[in-house]
Each structure stands twice: as C-alpha cells, then as structure tokens.
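Query structure, 232 tokens:
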C-alpha cells in the first residue's frame, strides 16, 4: 500500500548533520568566550573605580621595624607612611572575585591530577590535596588571595646634610650585616637605588641627589612585610 506524504520523514544527509553539530558547538564556545570577556570587562571597570588603598601617617617608626631594618638619621625623617596589606590589594581582590568564581570550578573539573595547581598555584597545592570534597577545594580557591597582602611602610627624608654615596654605603653595609641580600642596584649622576630581600621581606632604597646642590635632595626607604608575622 502506498505511504501517505504525512508519514514520510525527510532526514538531512549525514554531512549536513555534522555541519549543523559543528556550528552548534562553535556557537556555544563563542557564547562562553563572550561571557568570560564580559566578566573580565566588568572586573576591570570595578578595579578602575574602586578606591585606592588607604595610607596611615605614623609619628614614629614601629619598634619592630627598627629591629629588622636599619634606619638612617631618625631626627631628620619627614614622613612615615603605613599601608596595610588588606588595603593594598583590596582593588585586585575585588576585581578577581568574578573570574575566580567562574574559572575555579573549571580547573577543579579538568585538573583532576592537580597539574595546573602544581605549576601555577603551588602555594595552595598541599591544601587542595587534603580537602575531601569539591566544595571545600573550591572554597580554597576563593579564599586564597591573588594579590600581595604584605603591609608596606615607607620612610622619606628630604634635604639631608649627608653625601649620597655615604647613605648608599650605609644601607648596603648595614643590611648585609642583618643577612639581607642586595638583589639589584643602579646608579646615574642623580639617582642611586637598589632592592633588598630576606625570606618574605622585600624593600628598596631610592636616593635622589642633584650634584649642583650641597645636600642629598631625597631618600626613600620602602619595606614590604607581614607586620602580624613580624610582631610590629
């Protein structure tokens, strides 16, 4: 008996079906990429308009700082500024929240052997391994900061009646006595600067000396450290 036209089902050729499936996958990937780009854009805007770190002005250098770092000429210090670690990195952490919210589950699903974590976030590898559930591993990602949470103290001098070369030599010698490493240094006719470090403490000394003036124009000592761990 002849079949009615209503009973006949027209099927696409296999090649056409594959093309449609490929197009669907491509649209899905493009949609996910667009979504991530929008999230990144929002995060950058949040970072741009988030208030900068709040800095405190101190009257005296904290005593524990003086036990760790040599301080030249207490009497002629102009300013002592302290920026707490949570203030320094709040903009970065706020902006990173949404990307972390999206990316962390993807990493946990795809990186079963912790290869990505081992290579790019070795600081949390051991903590990730001991977590019994995916949710707790996710929370490790969310709680771990991406910025530098160390506190920063900056001490400035202006118009010091001392030769710039002597100040440079003072800090170089005294820091080495306290087992600091001098990491890098550079000098020009007017500028002398170098960085130093020991364990989790990092800092820099910047000296501005105009040869045409009889005094050292400016000296700046900046130190990054975790005040809570050093007991300041």
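Result returned for the query:
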């Amino acid at each position: 008996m002849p079949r009615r036209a209503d009973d006949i089902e027209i099927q696409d050729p296999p090649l056409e079906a594959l093309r449609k499936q490929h197009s669907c996958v491509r649209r899905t990937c493009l949609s996910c990429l667009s979504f991530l780009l929008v999230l990144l854009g929002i995060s950058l805007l949040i970072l741009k308009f988030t208030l900068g770190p709040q800095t405190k002005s101190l009257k005296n250098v904290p005593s524990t700082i003086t036990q760790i770092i040599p301080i030249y000429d207490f009497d002629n210090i102009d300013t002592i500024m302290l920026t707490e670690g949570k203030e320094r990195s709040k903009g970065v952490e706020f902006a990173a929240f949404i990307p972390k919210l999206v990316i962390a589950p993807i990493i946990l699903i795809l990186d079963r052997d912790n290869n990505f974590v081992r290579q790019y976030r070795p600081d949390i590898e051991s903590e990730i391994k001991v977590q019994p559930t995916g949710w707790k591993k996710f929370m490790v990602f969310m709680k771990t900061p991406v910025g530098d949470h160390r506190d920063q103290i900056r001490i400035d001098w202006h118009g010091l009646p001392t030769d710039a070369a002597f100040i440079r030599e003072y800090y170089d010698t005294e820091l080495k006595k306290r087992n600091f490493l001098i990491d890098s240094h550079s000098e020009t006719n007017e500028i002398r600067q170098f960085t130093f470090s020991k364990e989790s403490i990092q800092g820099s000394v910047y000296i501005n000396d105009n040869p045409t003036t009889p005094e050292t124009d400016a000296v700046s000592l900046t130190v990054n450290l975790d005040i809570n761990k050093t007991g300041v």
